[in-house]
Design goal:
Elements: H1 2-15, E1 24-29, H2 44-50, E2 58-60, E3 67-69, E4 72-77, E5 83-88, H3 102-111, E6 118-121, E7 127-130, H4 138-142, E8 167-173, E9 177-182, E10 195-200, H5 204-213, E11 218-219, H6 227-231, E12 236-251, H7 261-270, H8 273-280, E13 287-288, H9 309-318, E14 326-331, H10 342-354, E15 359-364, H11 369-375, E16 380-386, H12 392-400, H13 416-424, H14 430-447, E17 450-463, E18 466-467, E19 483-484
Parallel strand pairs: 1-10, 1-11, 14-15, 14-16
Antiparallel strand pairs: 2-3, 4-5, 5-7, 6-7, 8-9, 9-10, 11-17, 12-16, 12-17, 13-17, 18-19
Helix pairs in contact: 7-9, 13-14
Length: 494
């Protein structure tokens, strides 16, 4: 009888589906997200979640900055790169069941606060976008995180959250956790992961501890602190690659004596980014900046002189420097991939400048940092920029174009010749583009409104069970290809 029951049990077990491996990925975030509408939040951590909930018309290849179709299957532009037409993918539905239509896309784009163009539906049901100025790289713009397409039923900044992406938004428990779940009706094959939990921590140290203990499976945008400890853990994979972020020392060109280019060149000559990189980026792919543009976007080498204290002293003497005065250096208050130790880096710069006769006091102002940077309420400021797209023109324009004053052009520098040359690059390609863009970068190097310091690395760590995750050059967290291997068998008693 026992043998008969055992046989029946084995037969029934064979007919049951095999036990599926756990398919919930736990991702650690160093802080809470700031919202759930891609049209309104552009910070890195919010985008980590929303990039997996919303699709764009076009997107990046899973491993490169090459533009590939997404919700638009094809596109073309007029010869002047001012009018762009997009044919939409058929049969796509938002998570709330609403069909994707050209009207929905147009409504979405026009609702985005930072969309400076016109959009309409043509007679064939395609989306037509007319640019305010020509741009041959407009698809790089459309691939940026804040142009994710939201459902027409989703109000600006409101709920319910509904996109067309590989994961559906489930919940946001502020300060604790964000949950997204597999979209089984995705227009591509559904993702392997069933659920992703973004676990919110208070700073990187807590994230690193959670990685070490196995409380989370994956964390990205790690600064170099304690990376060595992660590498010693046999259960973790640690990867670091030169990313698309650059750390700067920006100079307020509207304040005397920093309105004198000789003074700005002296500041550059006094500091040593190579030594600071060795000290603050050890164990990662961080590198001294050879240009204000990350190499993933455009490869160039600056002629700006560094680590030349005698040259700095000579330039200051020529400019009639008053060594009795003290100036402000506003430091960034929190670690970033391009600024892993803001206080330490600020002190190194303070020391290097003191050695050539420039006295600065350090100021840490977390509450007022962004407003002061925007309004030019500083002499020197440590800041940086992470590219949202693969367009080097957009990277430079965001930081130095006259139109960016009052936004990200904290140097307050303005040059009509520079603006015209940079705008001309928007409609060039190939060799003509390379020549013109190098001319643009040369203007920056001559004027020195900012000093590029570091190419910030992308650094991430994950449990070895996580398969298919790669560091993307856009810094976006792409979870669609990720799978979780089954955990090793338990070593219980026989």
């Amino acid at each position: 009888m026992k043998r008969f029951l055992a046989a029946v049990f084995m037969l029934c077990a064979a007919l049951l589906p095999a036990q599926a491996p756990p398919s919930t990925l736990r991702v650690g975030l160093q802080a809470d997200i700031r919202g759930t509408d891609p049209r309104q939040v552009i910070d890195t951590l919010s985008s980590a979640v929303l990039n997996n909930v919303f699709d764009n018309l076009v997107t990046f290849d899973e491993k490169t900055l090459k533009i590939v179709p997404a919700l638009a299957t094809s596109w073309d532009s007029d010869p002047g790169f001012r009018t762009w037409t997009y044919t939409l993918r058929e049969g796509v539905k938002f998570h709330d069941g609403t069909p994707l239509t050209a009207e929905a896309v147009v409504k979405n784009l026009l609702a985005a606060p930072n969309f400076p163009h016109e959009a309409a539906v043509d007679d064939e049901g395609r989306v037509v976008i007319t640019l305010s100025s020509p741009n041959a790289n407009f698809n790089q713009f459309l691939a940026e995180p804040y142009y994710g397409i939201v459902s027409p039923k989703m109000p600006l900044g409101g709920e319910p959250v509904s996109g067309t992406g590989p994961f559906r938004f489930v919940s946001w428990e502020k300060g604790k956790k964000v949950v997204i779940r597999r979209n089984s009706d995705y227009w591509r094959p559904a993702p392997s992961l069933e659920t992703v939990e973004f676990v919110i921590f208070d700073g990187q140290q807590a994230v690193l501890q959670a990685l070490q203990t196995g409380a989370i499976d994956l964390a990205s945008w790690l600064v170099p602190t304690d990376i060595r400890g992660l590498k010693a853990n046999p259960d973790l994979v640690v990867d670091s690659a030169t990313g698309n972020a650059v750390g700067f020392l920006t100079i307020n060109t509207k304040r005397k004596p920093f309105d004198d280019p000789r003074v700005r060149r002296a500041i550059a000559a006094a500091i040593n980014p190579i030594a600071m990189t060795q000290k603050f980026f050890s164990g990662t792919a961080g590198a001294p900046a050879s240009s204000m543009v990350p190499p993933s976007l455009f490869s160039s080498f600056s002629k700006m002189g560094f680590n030349r204290p005698e040259e700095a002293k000579a330039l200051l003497a020529e400019a009639g420097w008053d060594a009795s005065k003290t100036y402000t250096l506003l430091q960034i208050w929190a670690a970033r991939p391009y600024m892993p130790d803001p206080t330490g880096i600020a002190k190194e710069i303070q020391s290097a400048l003191a050695a050539v006769g420039v006295k600065v006091k350090l100021e840490n102002d977390p509450q007022g940092y962004f407003e002061r940077q925007t309004k030019g309420n500083f002499d020197l400021v440590l800041n940086g920029w992470i590219a949202d797209s693969g367009d080097p023109v957009a990277f430079v324009a965001a930081n130095l174009h006259t139109e960016a004053i009052g936004h990200n052009n904290s140097s307050q520098w303005s040059s009509k010749a520079f603006d015209q040359a940079l705008d001309a690059c928007r409609v060039l390609s190939g060799r003509p583009f390379e020549q013109k863009f190098k001319e643009v970068l040369g203007m920056v190097e001559d004027a020195v409104p900012l000093i590029p310091l570091f190419f910030g690395p992308q650094t991430a760590a994950w449990n070895k069970r996580v398969q298919g995750y790669t560091l993307h050059p856009s810094s976006q967290m792409i979870l669609y290809p990720v799978k979780l291997a089954a955990p090793p068998p338990s070593k219980g008693r026989p």
